[in-house]
Amino acid sequence: xxxxxxxxxxxxxxxxxxxxxxxxxxxxxxxxxxxxxxxxxxxxxxxxxxxxxxxxxxxxxxxxxxxxxxxxxxxxxxxxxxxxxxxxxxxxxxxxxxxxxxxxxxxxxxxxxxxxxxxxxxxxxxxxxxxxxxxxxxxxxxxxxxxxxxxxxxxxxxxxxxxxxxxxxxxxxxxxxxxxxxxxxxxxxxxxxxxxxxxxxxxxxxxxxxxxxxxxxxxxxxxxxxxxxxxxxxxxxxxxxxxxxxxxxxxxxxxxxxxxxxxxxxxxxxxxxxxxxxxxxxxxxxxxxxxxxxxxxxxxxxxxxxxxxxxxxxxxxxxxxxxxxxxxxxxxxxxxxxxxxxxxxxxxxxxxxxxxxxxxxxxxxxxxxxxxxxxxxxxxxxxxxxxxxxxxxxxxxxxxxxxxxxxxxxxxxxxxxxxxxxxxxxxxxxxxxxxxxxxxxxxxxxxxxxxxxxxxxxxxxxxxxxxxxxxxxxxxxxxxxxxxxxxxxxxxxxxxxxx
Length: 499
Ligand code: NAD
Known about the structure:
The chain is 37% helix and 21% strand. By secondary structure, it is α/β, with parallel strands linked by helices.
């Protein structure tokens, strides 16, 4: 297991050996063609924990060649009975569970996730593989009563070589959302993890080989977005690119993908509304609100980070939110009781702190947080206390831009129409929550809000079985559920003349 290889004379603060991660291409574990590598840092203490190959254009070429060969194999993956593909993906799901503690610890040290949350994500990824294991042989076409005498039917076929580019906030989970449906449909995949978080991607590809997925069907290229990622997006040998990340990167990928008119699916940024009517069960709301905005240190595209509250409930909502926020335990991600770890990097913390300064200049008021923790034991990490801003207007930058950190803003409204107008006054449209005991009002509001993933009297946003994706500048296409299989298949119509 290459990712677990350690250099005997080097250990990090926890006494764990440094890891040497490699790419997985054509079933082989490889360094970059030019031998370059980059360091992977633990954001909890700033220490280097691993090195990973700095892949670029030549490595992507190599991965595309391997993937194309594996896809073209007449007795290979794409031509296996769908049920056999499904059973192999189920083996991979089981291997993820068998290795879940190792994967969770790897992820937690790599991106600063509290260990409990990291375990949940690894299990979540295994459930995604289970779902698409079952879906593989439930993907079928139609027969269509056309006007000519004959039989008309459709086939759902894999696209071929697909490029999958994922971010650092939920590394193994975002990878599973793409790899599992892509492979279930019979494609050959090239996964590129974010530079901050390459470790579990490589390990996942190793487990895929162990599960019996043929070499070349699931490849991992590590390296920077501007070179490795851009080469995938532009490569003429890749038929589809699926991307999760920032909206501006998504726009660049659309441009790069235009060269060979790649199929694209994009899961992009968000600034999601969280509408609280005065008649809501505020105690129940307070029970889940911190999770919806501060989970993963707020580095969550679905964070419902604009709390749009009916004026008459404003004071009570701010009191409940402030109380719940103060109770959150910020600390070492390896500690079982930690609820919020560090941000992914010191650079990301600096970016978020710049937003906090902008909010103060704009005249918003910090109710809780706003600075790194006082605890000297956390001084070396990218920690930041969860922050609540009150007296915010929707046109302030802290309400308009995706901060991607533990910062939430409270914006009051007077009427139902105003709540919907404020919710939609953003270029994004990913998710949102609506809280009210009046189900008619909640449903009217849900109809009005332009977002792909809404919850009523709940802050949960992701269900493996249900579609996930954004309106407006939050993306193109829907992942998860049976919808995701449409992203990884072509539809072929066949007419047979029976006259
Ligand atoms: P990012 O856009 O910086 O990077 C995402 C991935 O794209 C990385 O692998 C990166 O290396 C690669 N990349 C960067 N530049 C590239 C280029 N020019 N060509 C090809 N690839 C390139 O995003 P991030 O900082 O890793 O993640 C945070 C962003 O992701 C946030 O905006 C967040 O909202 C979004 N996100 C969206 C969803 C969703 O489902 N909608 C889920 C998670 C994260």
